[in-house]
């Protein structure tokens, strides 16, 4: 079972002269605008749990309350009502000294505008959390250099922050948070001050670091494409409330309301959806024990000139063409192994759509999709790949195979006409459970 690293329960934050009265009225059903006479409600009844090791993204437009929430998670903002726990321990209603210990030992923060100490070198900035803990100077310097190398800043330790570019300064901010070696990283619009190219580079580096370090990260952003790229799960905020929590695929394909639907309409789907999201059940395919007749039936039913061949564990062995299968039938042979051709392309079910276009073009069959054990779990016809990216003039293009399938009459002749029920049963192809978006392969 997943372990909860951080949890927020029914959080409210109201700025103004009478926050308690505002919360009472909000709980009674009044709106954000209704309570303006007693306070400004920045966060309203927000609840979520962050699993250990995930990147949890909170996103929304300016004024939605996302930056206020992240400051409530480490006690920078007092909580008007509700509770935050870190590893099961509350941070609300505790002495200030205990709160400082939690910030020092369990939660680090990366700010939008770097927040580096300008008079300290890069290495000293990174080592600062260790200095607060009383770590010896030589040890903290060695640790700082190690982490600087990890974020791509080896050799820059003796420079001042002013000598670095914006992207490099943000790397120092991330390195400083990593040096603290806390379980949780809070990142408030950490990349929004960077230009687009550097921003994308930093996003990719964060994903690479997370794969190695498995920190628990709460990331705040107003950029939906950034949220989709980084987040294991995303909380969408509007007017102080969380309106939907889900995976990037959930948010994109099943928006909770019109607001979320409008929000995601311009998302780059090719960077979010994966092969596993759009694949169809694997047809045409035949186990290597099925023989040429079973292969021909599969190709005939799918109007295809070739079929995938798998072993008994559904691992791909190769492809067989209808012409080669007909030759085997005419020779009276029952094994496909002598005519197998290599699989031209296959992709992992976790591969994003943006990386599927070249393989799909190069594959004479619908693109094979495999799991972590290299088993065939689905296929993606080119028309399905195009349709997954949204409606457009090419969404109904036909798939053109390098070699058209044989006429049915020629296949029937090779099979000797209608086969008996016994023969059909003997050569039956096992069924693989279809995904939710099952469709016919053409």
Automatic annotation (TrEMBL):
Pfam family, one: CBS
Location of the CBS domain: 279-336
Gene Ontology molecular function, alphabetical: ATP binding; ATP hydrolysis activity
Top-rank lineage group of the source organism: Bacteria
Organism of derivation: Microbacterium pseudoresistens
ABC transporter domain residues: 6-264
Name of the protein in its database record: Glycine betaine/proline transport system ATP-binding protein
GO cellular component: membrane
Keywords, comma-separated and alphabetical: Amino-acid transport, ATP-binding, CBS domain, Nucleotide-binding, Transport
Signal peptide: none
Region spans: Disordered: 417-442
Keyword Manganese attributed: no
InterPro entries assigned: AAA+_ATPase, ABC_osmolyte_uptake_ATP-bind, ABC_transporter-like_ATP-bd, ABC_transporter-like_CS, CBS_dom, CBS_dom_sf, Gly-betaine_transp_ATP-bd, P-loop_NTPase
Family: Belongs to the ABC transporter superfamily.
GO terms of biological process kind: amino acid transport; glycine betaine transport; response to osmotic stress
KW Ribosomal protein (keyword) present: no
CDD domains: ABC_Pro_Gly_Betaine
């Amino acid at each position: 079972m997943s372990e909860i690293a951080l949890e927020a329960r029914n959080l409210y934050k109201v700025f103004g002269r009478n926050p308690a009265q505002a919360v009472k009225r909000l709980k009674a059903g009044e709106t954000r605008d209704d309570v303006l006479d007693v306070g400004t409600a920045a966060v309203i009844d927000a609840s979520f749990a962050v699993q250990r090791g995930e990147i949890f993204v909170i996103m929304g437009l300016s004024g939605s309350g996302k930056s206020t929430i992240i400051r409530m998670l480490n006690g920078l903002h007092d909580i008007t009502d509700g509770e935050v726990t870190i590893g099961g321990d509350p941070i609300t209603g505790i002495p200030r000294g205990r709160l400082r210990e939690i910030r020092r030992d369990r939660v680090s923060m990366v700010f939008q505008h770097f927040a580096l100490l300008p008079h300290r070198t890069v290495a000293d900035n990174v080592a600062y959390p260790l200095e607060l803990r009383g770590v010896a100077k030589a040890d903290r310097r060695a640790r700082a250099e190690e982490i600087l190398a990890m974020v791509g800043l080896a050799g820059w330790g003796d420079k001042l922050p002013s000598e670095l570019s914006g992207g490099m300064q943000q790397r120092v901010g991330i390195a400083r948070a990593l040096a603290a070696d806390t379980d949780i990283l809070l990142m408030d619009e950490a990349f929004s001050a960077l230009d687009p190219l550097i921003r994308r580079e930093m996003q990719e580096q964060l994903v690479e670091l997370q794969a190695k370090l498995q920190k628990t990260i709460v990331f705040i952003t107003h950029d939906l494409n950034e949220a989709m790229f980084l987040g294991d799960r995303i909380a969408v905020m509007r007017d102080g409330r969380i309106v939907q929590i889900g995976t990037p695929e959930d948010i994109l394909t099943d928006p909770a309301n019109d607001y979320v639907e409008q929000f995601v309409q311009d998302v780059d789907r090719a960077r979010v959806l994966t092969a596993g999201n759009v694949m169809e059940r694997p047809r045409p395919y035949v186990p290597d024990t099925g023989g040429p007749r079973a292969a021909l039936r599969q190709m005939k039913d799918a109007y295809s000139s070739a079929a995938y061949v798998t072993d008994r564990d559904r691992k791909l062995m190769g492809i067989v063409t209808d012409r080669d299968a007909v030759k085997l039938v005419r020779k009276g042979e029952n094994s496909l192994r002598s005519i197998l051709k290599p699989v031209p392309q296959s992709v992992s079910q976790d591969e994003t759509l943006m990386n599927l276009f070249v393989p799909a073009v190069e594959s004479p069959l619908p693109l094979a999709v495999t799991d972590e054990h290299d088993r065939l779990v689905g296929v993606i016809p080119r028309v399905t790949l195009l349709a997954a990216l949204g409606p457009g003039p090419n969404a109904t293009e036909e798939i053109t195979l390098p070699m058209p399938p044989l006429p049915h009459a020629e296949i029937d002749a090779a099979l000797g006409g209608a086969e008996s029920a016994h023969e059909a049963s003997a050569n039956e192809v096992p069924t693989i459970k279809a995904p939710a978006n099952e469709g016919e392969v053409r």
